[in-house]
Write a structure and sequence with these properties.
The chain is of the alpha/beta class. The chain folds into two domains: 211 residues, Spore Coat Polysaccharide Biosynthesis Protein SpsA, Chain A; 74 residues, no CATH class. The protein is 45% helix and 20% strand. The chain contains twelve helices and nine strands. Strands 1, 2, 3, 4, 5, 6, 7, 8 and 9 form a nine-stranded mixed β-sheet that branches. Helix 7 packs across helix 8, helix 9 crosses helix 11 and helix 10 runs antiparallel to helix 11. The chain is globular, with a radius of gyration of 19 Å.
Length: 302
């Protein structure tokens, strides 16, 4: 059965007439997961006004799967993006930027990023928007990311109430435009950069731990994971993380399984960037604000 956009809006009800959100997704070879992601969105009690899924040079069945859903649900749109010379995080942010250029013409109050390997509870966006309604300074909101271990989905140990994972976040439009959207950073961290920038401008950022987001992608092999964590250390340095904060964060995780080796690799990346004096990718104002936040987190009485 093909559902038109008018029928979808009628099913959502009056809430969609007062507050509207749009979604964007960058997908690269996600045939194993993306159908489950789409199914969880079309089941939402409050549907998006538009959802653009940017297939970032996919070579598997991703485009076919998205097109199949787009043929049944008018709010879903496939955007084919050719990767050319862009890779990794830079390519992903480029795809999201192209998607948002099309979404700018759609009336909306919130813009959401959704990874192509997650699923959401049916009331996910309705609950988030309820929280936005209750706090006019809430800029970024999302649920708690849960990953599978030994057959059970559990919240990630790195989840924090004051930090919202990029995988399933919703951003107030005024906040999104104020921070300039997601920046294409060399080592990633576009979500971290956006939320720190948002707090600098007086917006609040909040994860709702009572709402679970299931993340399906399995962890890669050991070598790939170590390289990823090494690059995260370089990301931390280029975004201005305080050396003492970085040391304490990694030291805590080194004693935790299975995060020990990953923490060591992250610290190595940070120290290498520190030693080679790799240039920062943010302003000094950003670094000063971030380090003040980190010092407060280190202070047990703060």
């Amino acid at each position: 059965m093909i559902e038109t956009l008018a029928e979808a809006e009628k099913r959502v009800g009056t809430a969609a007439e007062t507050l509207r959100y749009v979604l964007m997704t960058a997908a690269y070879n996600e045939e194993a997961f993306i159908a489950r992601t789409i199914e969880s969105v079309v089941a939402q009690t409050m549907l998006p006004a538009r959802w653009i899924i940017a297939s970032d040079g996919s070579t598997d069945r991703t485009d076919e799967i998205v097109s199949s859903f787009a043929g049944r649900y008018a709010f879903i749109q496939l955007l084919r993006v050719e990767r050319s010379h862009l890779r990794g995080v830079i390519s992903k942010i480029n795809a999201l930027s192209l998607a948002y250029k099309q979404l700018e013409q759609v009336k909306h109050d919130f813009v959401g990023n959704l990874d192509a390997d997650v699923s959401l509870p049916d009331t996910y966006f309705e609950q988030l928007i309820t929280f936005f309604r209750s706090d006019s300074r809430l800029g970024i909101c999302g649920g708690s990311i849960c990953e599978e271990r030994h057959g059970v989905f559990r919240p990630r140990p790195t989840n924090r109430l004051s930090s919202v994972a990029h995988a399933a976040q919703l951003v107030r439009r005024e906040c999104y435009e104020a921070v300039g959207g997601y920046r294409p950073l060399k080592y990633g961290g576009e979500d971290w950069c956006a939320e720190v920038s948002a707090r600098m401008m007086g917006w609040s950022v909040r994860t709702l731990p009572q709402i679970n987001v299931l993340h399906y992608r399995p962890t890669g092999g050991a070598d790939r994971r170590m390289l990823h964590c090494y690059r995260q250390g370089k990301m931390d340095f280029t975004l201005g993380s305080h050396p003492l904060f970085e040391l304490m964060k990694c030291a805590r995780r080194i004693s935790e399984r299975p995060w020990g080796l990953a923490a060591a690799a992250r610290l190595a990346g940070f120290l290498w960037s520190y030693t080679t004096r790799e240039p920062r990718l943010v302003t000094q104002e950003f670094v000063t604000f971030l380090r003040a936040e980190q010092r407060n987190r280190l202070n047990p009485f703060g």
